[in-house]
């Protein structure tokens, strides 16, 4: 797989006859990760409360499943701590991050020193549910879990927004994740 898709730029363009895929791979975790890395997405901090402190993870796989009512779908690795914490709490916050919050995204993803359980030094407020919401984000949603779907090695949580707000972050500077990096939108 890595020898097929590991090249910069991914599959070659224009090398296969019209209507045929230039390269193929088995649908497995490795090919799924490759495809996921090539899907540009906004970066969210998912936050909740567990074990007497605030907990967080970085997500790009957030789907607005419905506008009326406002429902979100997030998919969390079944073996992750954040999946267990969200299940136990029954709620979470989603904060849409700005480019200025890249280090925070790395902290919540485990690529930088972990954030303190009190979120000391991180501007936040406590939501109606109890989840911390990041005030420097573009915007946020405070969500209560309404259902779970076991999806292979992940659990998809369907959650209803109980409150939505605008943060202090510039709405024209979203943090975007693409090909394992944070490229600028402009």
Structural class: alpha+beta
In the CATH hierarchy, what is the superfamily of the largest domain? Electron Transport, Fmn-binding Protein, Chain A
Number of strands: 11
Number of domains: 2
Unreliable residue stretches = 7-14
Specify the number of helices.
4
Oligomer: single chain
- The CATH topology of the largest domain corresponds to Pnp Oxidase, Chain A
CATH architecture assignment name of the largest domain: Roll
Major sheet: arrangement of strands: 3-2-6-9-10-5-4
Please give the radius of gyration in angstroms: 18 Å
Alpha carbon gap, first and last residue: 32 Å
The CATH class name of the largest domain reads: Mainly Beta
Shape: globular
Task: List strands and helices in order, with pairings.
Layout (H helix, E strand, L loop, with lengths): L1 H4 L23 H9 L3 E2 L1 E7 L2 E7 L2 E5 L4 E7 L3 H9 L1 E6 L5 H8 L14 E3 L5 E3 L4 E13 L2 E13 L9 E2 L9
Antiparallel strand pairs: 1-11, 2-3, 2-6, 4-5, 5-10, 6-9, 7-8, 9-10
What's this model, at a glance?
The protein is an alpha+beta fold and 186 residues long.
Q: Which terms summarize this structure?
A:
Pnp Oxidase, Chain A; globular; two-stranded antiparallel sheet; 2 domains; 186 residues; 7-stranded antiparallel beta sheet
Structure description:
By secondary structure, this protein is an alpha+beta fold. The protein has two domains: 1-38, no CATH class; 41-177, Electron Transport, Fmn-binding Protein, Chain A (Pnp Oxidase, Chain A, Roll), CATH 2.30.110.10. The protein is 16% helix and 37% strand. The chain has helices at 2-5, 29-37, 81-89, 102-109, and strands at residues 41-42, 44-50, 53-59, 62-66, 71-77, 91-96, 124-126, 132-134, 139-151, 154-166, 176-177. Strands 3-2-6-9-10-5-4 form a seven-stranded antiparallel sheet. Strands 1-11 form a two-stranded antiparallel sheet.
């Amino acid at each position: 797989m890595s020898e097929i898709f590991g090249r910069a730029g991914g599959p070659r363009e224009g090398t296969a006859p019209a209507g045929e895929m230039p390269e193929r791979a088995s649908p497995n975790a490795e090919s799924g990760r490759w495809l996921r890395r090539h899907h540009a997405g906004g970066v969210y901090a998912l936050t909740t409360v567990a074990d007497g402190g605030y907990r967080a993870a970085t997500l790009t796989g957030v789907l607005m499943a419905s506008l009326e009512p406002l429902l979100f779908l997030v998919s969390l690795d079944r073996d992750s701590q954040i999946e267990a914490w969200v299940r136990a709490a029954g709620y979470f916050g989603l904060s849409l991050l700005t480019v200025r919050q890249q280090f925070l995204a790395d902290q919540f993803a485990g690529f930088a020193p972990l954030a303190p359980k009190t979120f000391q030094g991180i501007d936040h407020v406590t939501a109606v549910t109890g989840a911390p919401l990041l005030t420097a984000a573009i915007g946020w949603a405070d969500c209560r879990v309404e259902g779970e779907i076991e999806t292979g090695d992940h659990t998809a949580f369907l959650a209803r927004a109980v409150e939505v707000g605008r943060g202090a972050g510039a709405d024209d500077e979203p943090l975007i994740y693409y090909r394992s990096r944070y490229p600028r939108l402009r």
